[in-house]
Every structure is written in C-alpha cells, then in structure tokens.
Amino acid sequence: MAVLTRESTVGTLLRFATAGSVDDGKSTLVGRLLHDSKSILADQLEAVTRTSTERGFGGTGGGIDFALLTDGLRAEREQGITIDVAYRYFATAQRSFILADCPGHVQYTRNMVTGATTADAVVMLIDARKGVLEQTRRHLSVVHQLRVPHVIIAVNKIDLLDYSERAFDHVADAVRVVTAQLGLDDVHVLPTSALLGDNIVDRSPNMPWYDGPSLLELLETLPSTDDLESGQEDFRMPVQLVIRPQGALASGIDDPDAFRDYRGYGGQISSGRVSVGDRVTVSHNGLSTVVTGIDFAGSELTTAAAPQSVALRLRDDFDIARGATIAAEGTLPGPTKNVTASLFWLDDRALLPGARVLVKFGTATIQAIVLEITGRRNLDTLELQPADRLDVNDIGQARVRLSAALPVELFAHNRRGGAFLIINPSDGATLAAGTILERNDE
Fold first, then answer.
1. pLDDT of 93-119, one tens digit each?
2. CA of 289: how far to CAs of 222, 266, 272, 280, 309, in Å?
3. What's the total number of domains in the chain?
C-alpha cells in the first residue's frame, strides 16, 4: 500500500461509499462522521435534533438520531431503512470528500453497485454481534469485482459487547478469511461505535488495546484513485459531443472569424492525461492526429487529466461522432466482438442465454446478444458455480457478442474503460452493470 501523509493529501478529493448488511449502522456512522467533523449546518442539526426528540430518540445517543442526516427520502425516515444512495459532500483541513451512503437490504444491491462504481474506498460495516453475513460476502464480492482500491471494515456496535478485544478479533479473523478468498489486498479493520462516536473522528479511550487510526484519520491519509493512477494509465476520452459554435455573432463573441472553423470534441477524460502536441488515435477509424488545443470552461489549457471535462481540438478534420474514443496513440487494443464479462444483474427479469440487449461502453451504445451464462457466484463459498440464468442481485459471468467490433479493454487494466452497462432495448431499463474479464478474439 502506498501510504500518503496528511500533508501530501491536502486538497485532494476522496470518493468513498458505505456498505454492509441491514441495521449495521451505516447511516448512523455517516451522520456521526458529518456531525463530529463539524460538517453539519446549524439549521440542519437543529431540525434533526427536533425530529429525534419528537420520535423519542435519546438515551446514550445524546438525543440525536444521526441516521436522519443522510436518510433523505420520506419512506426512509418512516421505515428506518436506507433505500436510495445518499450522496454527501464535506471537507476537513486535510482533504475533501464525496461519500455515498448505500442501502444494506438485498433488494437494493443495485444501489450499492451504483455507489461503489466510482469509489476510491468502501467502508464496510459489520455488526460485531452478528459477524460476517451473506450480504457482507455479497458486498465484498462487488467491491472486489469493481476493483475498489481500498476496503475499510468497521466492526460496529462494539460498545454493545463491552468493547471486547476478543469479540473484535473473532470478527476480524472471519473478515480476513473472506477477503483472502477474494484476493482483496488493501484491507483495514477497526472497531467502532457509530452511535457513541468511538473511533469515528477521534480515537476512543474505551479501547486501549486498539492502537490504529480512527476512521476519519484513515480516510484522510488513503491515496485516491487519481493519486494511484496519475501518470500510470493511458489517456482515454469518450467523445460526448462535437462542438461547432457557428452562431458566434449571436453569442456575442467579438471576433467570430476566429471561431468560424472551430471544431472541438467534448467529453470527460476517463483515464490518463493529455497535452497540446500529443499524438492521439480515434477509435472508430484508427487514424492518428495531433492535439492542437484543449478548451476548459472558457479558457485554454496546455494539459488536462482525468476526470476533467474538456473539448479537444485536433489537427486533422476527421469524421468523429459521439461514441468514439480519443486515446493516446498506439495504446488502444484491437477491436473485438466477443467478450467474457462479469455481470451484476440488477433487474427483476431473469437473464437467459440468447437475450438481445443494448450494451453501453462510455458514450457508445450498440446491440449485443448474450451467448452463454458461464456461472453464478455462490455467496457462501464465493466459488463460481455452473448456472443457466441470472436472477436479480446475482453476480455471475457470461459470454457476450457485440454487433460491432469495439476496442474494449480489460477491466483489470482500465477500471473505467473496461466497465459497461446492459440496457433493455424495449424500455430503456438498466439490466446489469458489467466488467470485461476476457476478450475472446477470433
């Protein structure tokens, strides 16, 4: 693990998600984290305190139901569960954070996949009294297959076991068995009480046997994906929009002649960095050219990097449309129609061999057919077992044939470039999230 000091992470952004089983205290932990890091506005805190009092919440929690700080939907507040992913933004003196509080119920696994897809770290909660459950294995399997760089296991509600070191060690040992089976490397395990604030922002005096960091201390020092991948991944930018501001006079530009021949290709850089003068290749035609300009929010840049959204100007006037990818020259793999993929099935309708679907890679959407379902993961043993269908919340593998050859990348080599969505062509529903395991080139 590449450990950064607090000083080296100042100003960097860390995206993290919570996960775990039902009633493990995820929303309470997030609320406590926001409260104790002084990231709650006074009027919001007053409203939550008032609602908590009206509902009779009190006791050792100090009269505040911290889960109310993140459970924003009325149904969530009424049922006492998390349904949707709640995004929150906060900052400390060391760095800025975007957190996604994900549901724990099995029927909302799709929401957890959504929250973890772009995360630099996942905070996985486990009730110290219950230990590792099937949903724990499910979420850890998702984390593994999405290649989330850092996993933090918060063994929560340790106060209900009198801060027992033995109880913590028992759960920690079981966690390490599962993470070892999955091949998860960067795993941190710490004892917490979200309700009382033990080891959330400050280290707890109630557990002198634990000498590790608090949760916030850990989050402040973990390297983000951008830190880890800076300069390591090849440049990729899926083209979202071709920009031709031919209405320069109407837009009030003083010198419309300077823009009469303007053509820019807008999109979000998915990986790597690009500079003026770099040679790049366009995926759809395989032709190479040179970057002559980078436009960003009304200004010109000499260099841009993921995840910035920019418009590139190129030396040659190629026929480039939405769905193409502009990449560093010589780094795109050859096009292929056949892939083996890991699938997180998210729809109530089962996936069967022969299904005709739409597949969305970046900004490109094409037709595809599911040739074969090659397996489904057993969440008790974590083994891939033979299967002839995938049902909602199943994690499995399938062979897929695309209607057109694309230069798709392995997820193991490029986390963003190797990910895709499966869409129902009849109603537009998202059926699955997928990652490319193999390219079955003919």
1. 888 898 887 765 555 566 677 777 778
2. 38, 16, 18, 6, 20
3. 3
